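A quick aside before the break. I want you to see a complete sequence-to-structure record at least once, exactly as it would be stored in a machine-readable document. Don't worry about memorizing anything.
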Amino acid sequence: MSTHRAVQVKSTGGPLELAEVETPPPQKGQVRIDVAACGVCGTDKGIANGFFPVSWPLTLGHEIAGTVAELGPGVEDFAVGDRVAIGWFGGHCGVCVPCRKGLFIHCVNGQVPSLSYPGGYAESVTAPANALARIPDELTFAEAAPMGCAGVTVYNALRHTRAVAGDVVAVQGLGGLGHLGVQFAAAMGFDTVVIARGRGDRERDARALGARHYIDSTSEDVAAALQDLGGAAVVLGAAGNAQAMADTVGGLAPRGELVVVGVTAEPLGISPAQLIQPAISVSGHPSGTARDVEETMHFAVVSGVRARIEERPLAEAAEAFAAMAESRARYRMVLTV
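That is the input. The structure line, written in tokens, reads:
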């Protein structure tokens, strides 16, 4: 058992505090990773506030990038020194029914860093080897970290829609998820729209990130504006606002899709009458497996997509977390170790 620094939360809603912790050596099928960077994700706020079943004290962080430092028994596909990332997908059991169907993201015993084992706000993490995604040489650790959750979530959602190059695809929200969603959508060849609140800096950012069109939801009828563009093949619901998502449904083209990735507990105000005649579909999309993360990073390399990040050292995790929780981050905070 080795000792490393980690940032812990000791109780629901408690402060983030730097501590010396013991990192267990890897067991069968596990590896230990020297963490180089860890993204600060919006879901970390919900975890710290007790919206998920957790054990205290808790080490947050599920956008991890680093180097394999130690191999457990039976790990043959990775070597010490390999550059790897772990995202929200933190391992699967391989024996439950979804796993036997190849649906590893729906594993009944699926693991998530910070919920299932100590996360990446730390110098060292021990994790299942089947959670690891190889980082391309072209990405730094800080660039790779957000791809494990935010990046794979939007990229994987977009590539599984029915949209083809040239179709109108709208990204609702221009935050940590949305700013990556608009880049991926533009890189895929979609006629990309951003729907956000206000103009000014937001519109300038949206266009700089690849949007051809911008809709200000505070001053325009979102559905009408989308229909003026010919109707959206896809709306990616990236901001966790149920009403804002519902407001886009009338702007979908026939057989259009609202794909929800922004998390909120609010119900969606959509009527069956809105869905039936145009054959609209509404679906949720989870993040993606370790292989999906690898493919996300590969596409980022070939397309030039990158998260806009602000780096902070591990000792400033509390400040980075507060910037994320208070929506002051533009657009992702990344802790570096």
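Two observations worth writing down. DSSP finds eleven helices and 16 strands in the chain. The chain has a mean pLDDT of 96. We'll return to this after the break.
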